[in-house]
Write a structure and sequence with these properties.
- There is one protein chain.
- By secondary structure, the protein is an alpha/beta fold.
- 42% of the residues lie in helices and 14% in strands.
- It has an 8-stranded mixed beta sheet, with helices on both faces. The chain has a 4-stranded antiparallel beta sheet with strand order 10-11-14-13. Strands 1-12 form a two-stranded parallel sheet.
- Helix 6 packs across helix 11.
- The structure holds pyridoxal-5'-phosphate.
- Pyridoxal-5'-phosphate (PLP) binds next to helix 6.
Length: 398
């Protein structure tokens, strides 16, 4: 018999989609539904009351200035004035980038995917930090790469450990994906000595560096360190307006190099032709003459929230618990003593009123289970303070 309901259900999908199913988000959403009153530390976005809606509305109005021609296909690399503005902002962080090497993308996430398409053949090794941004792991796996983690401490990626690993690997890795500045998930920053050492090691071993930098401008204790891109123009740099303006805009960029410029252009064009032209103009008109001031205002807000979280942890946590103290970005990383499992703890924490992201999801091999990522940008100080005592209560009870 043919055409049964059963047969219709077994659609032959590719194995490349399987890694996308491995996501913490459906589970975290369930937790938020289980206790809608719980303080949510799971996200990584600017809070809605910080997003400059009026300025964006004015920017959106001006985006229509060029009329219907803006609604045709065009500008695969992205709106030129926006690319110039990005080049200026990157120069302020030490990197001289040719506007021709800047390609506007649908967020840094698309930059990660384009880099994966350009470099990865099935079976390739890709190096990441351990822990790293979990949605990058899903992309690398979907391209059938094997992600291998390099350990991270308070000063960022351990470059010595990377050198040892490179000696041991059976094949040369296609690239190193790194978030050196106010890292997701630990909030740590690669020290200047290690930045230099990393760039030198990568050059020596022919290792491509993909530098993802969504949080670099959000520094709370002085200026951020120069980007890796500023130390080596061959670094592939991924940027975004998601954290300094708003993630729903879906505007980010890749700054590559003359050698890779065409590859990024071709793959972007072949994938989704180009970004929305109205939105890239909106971001330009919003950011021009405004973004520095806006970033300064938000730094103040986030600094106070970071301080509230660190003070709360100091006051409430049992002695054996430790955490990172980030100088920027959105996250800090709390580590519990041996024997704890933050995946197993999450439902109980939710019932007691706190939602965090368990550490295992951030590791290529899911091996580390006793830390958690806490986002401090999206909750007011009073909520953070109150939630730290609930979190401590959960840890004591567990
Ligand atoms: C390290 C890192 N890279 C990329 C992204 C995705 O950013 P975008 O919204 O620009 O795609 C995020 C968002 O959380 C992130 O933390």
């Amino acid at each position: 018999m043919t055409g049964t309901a059963q047969e219709h259900q077994s659609v032959a999908t590719s194995r490349r989609i399987e890694p996308f199913a491995a996501s913490v988000w459906p589970w975290v959403d369930q937790m938020a539904e289980r206790n809608p009153a719980a303080v949510f530390f799971g996200g990584g976005v600017p809070p809605t009351d910080v997003i400059p809606v009026e300025r964006l509305r004015e920017g959106a109005n001006r985006a229509w200035d060029d009329g219907a021609s803006t609604l045709l296909y065009g500008e695969v690399r992205g709106y030129r004035p926006l690319r110039d503005l990005i080049a200026e902002r990157m120069a302020a962080r030490g990197a001289a980038v040719d506007t021709a090497d800047i390609l506007i993308t649908n967020g840094a996430q698309q930059g990660i995917d384009l880099a994966a398409r350009i470099f990865i053949d099935p079976g390739d090794i890709v190096l990441t930090e351990a822990p790293t941004f979990m949605d990058a792991l899903r992309v690398f796996r979907s391209h059938e790469a094997e992600p291998i983690g390099v350990p991270v401490d308070e000063d960022g990626l351990q470059v010595d450990a990377l050198a040892t690993l490179l000696d041991r690997l059976p094949r040369r890795p296609k690239f190193l994906y790194t978030v050196p500045t106010y890292q997701n998930p630990m909030g740590v920053c690669l020290s200047s000595e290690r930045r230099r050492a990393l760039v030198d090691l990568a050059r020596e071993r022919g290792l491509v560096i993909v530098e993802d930098d969504p949080y670099g401008e959000l520094s709370y204790d002085g200026d951020p360190l120069p980007t890796l891109k500023s130390l080596d123009p061959e670094v592939v740099f991924l940027g975004t307006f998601s954290k300094v303006l708003a993630p729903g805009l879906r505007v980010g960029w890749v700054a590559s190099s003359p050698q890779l410029r065409e590859a990024f252009f071709n793959v972007k064009e072949g994938t989704d032709i180009h970004n929305e032209r109205i939105m890239t103009r909106t971001v330009y008109h919003t950011a021009h003459g405004f973004l520095d001031q806006h970033v300064n205002t938000t730094r103040e807000i986030y600094r106070r929230r970071r301080d509230a979280m660190v003070r709360g942890l100091e006051r409430e946590m049992p002695a054996a618990v430790s955490w990172t103290t980030p100088h920027g970005g959105f996250f800090l990383w709390v580590t519990l003593p041996e024997g704890y499992d933050t995946d197993a703890m999450l439902p109980d924490a939710t019932d007691r009123g706190v939602i965090f992201l368990p550490s295992s999801w951030f590791y290529p091999d899911r091996s580390w289970t006793r830390s958690m990522r806490l986002n401090f940008s999206s909750q007011p100080e009073e909520r953070i303070t109150e939630a730290m005592s609930r979190l401590a209560e959960t840890i004591r009870a567990y």
